[in-house]
Design goal:
With about 260 residues, this protein is an alpha+beta fold. It has a single domain, classed as 4-Layer Sandwich (CNF1/YfiH-like putative cysteine hydrolases). The protein has seven helices and 13 strands. The strands form three sheets. It has a six-stranded mixed β-sheet. A hairpin with a 4-residue loop joins strand 6 and strand 7. About 50% of the residues are buried.
């Protein structure tokens, strides 16, 4: 059963160790939300057909947990791109730029990304006081959202050797079947990507390990990596999942938030 009393985000030990340096983070679950029905829990997605009032309230609750006003929870209009926004002031919900990652060196602005199977990645350089958040589905990861986020952080003074990056809850390889076109896209980009596929029960399809693919790209980028290894598809009580919704033939799905903030 969902605890509707308060949000209860999953967290990373790697980033929790930075809390004394003023970095707070959370990979939010469905717990603690005001939404009902198929959106039950903490749905923060304006792109869903949920009640806007409920989504606004859920974002307010998440912002309060992060210690910021609801106006200071910054998110973007995600488009599965490698594009990154440098944030210096609050972003109004109706003015969200089209991008899939955010970075900032400004205290008091929480950076958030929304997911429902894709990989949320939170970044922090505690020494330089620079943070980031990225939405990494297969397309964003393939075309460079990780590397672009790190480059944007470096523009603000971060150093690769000091950056901690954590991949949060996402769909596991056991539940992520893809068609032949997806296999072709990834192998055309790099033949070594064949290692991330295993056979599926469906002819011509394969199971894709998005988590391992993402973690390997983070490691190659030269940052310290952690993984909150929970499957959004398998944990229906805790996470929204686009793929699970599709298989159940439900009309819509919610989105969970992953966010990080430099405390003032």
């Amino acid at each position: 059963m969902l605890d509707l009393a308060r949000p209860d985000p999953a967290r990373s030990d790697l980033l929790d160790a930075l809390a004394p340096k003023g970095i707070r983070h959370g990979f939010f679950t469905r717990a603690g939300g005001a939404s009902q029905g198929i959106y039950a829990g903490l749905n923060v997605g304006f792109g869903s057909d949920d009640s806007r009032d409920a989504v606004v309230e859920n974002r307010r609750r998440a912002a309060r947990w992060l210690g910021v006003p609801e106006t200071h929870l910054a998110t973007v209009h995600q488009i599965h791109s490698p594009d990154v926004e440098i944030v210096t002031r609050p972003i109004p919900p109706d003015g969200r730029p089209k991008a899939d990652a955010l970075v900032t060196a400004t205290p008091g602005i929480a950076l958030g990304v929304l997911t429902a199977d894709c990989g949320p990645i939170l970044f922090a350089d505690a020494r330089a006081r620079v943070i980031g958040a990225a939405h990494a589905g297969w397309k964003g990861a393939l075309y460079g959202v990780i590397e672009n986020t790190l480059a944007a952080m470096e523009k603000l003074g971060a150093r690769r050797a000091d950056i901690h990056a954590v991949l949060g809850p996402a769909i596991s390889a056991a539940n992520y079947e893809v068609g032949p076109e997806r296999v072709a896209d990834l192998i055309a980009a790099d033949s070594a990507n064949d290692a991330y596929f295993t056979p599926s029960a469906t002819a011509g399809h394969a199971m894709f390990d998005l988590n391992r693919y993402t973690i390997d790209r983070l490691k190659r980028a030269g940052v310290t990596v952690d993984h909150v290894a929970r499957c959004t598809y398998a944990e229906a009580d805790n996470f929204f999942s686009y793929r699970r919704t599709t298989h159940r033939q439900e009309p819509d799905y919610g989105r969970q938030l992953s966010a990080i903030v430099l405390e003032t």
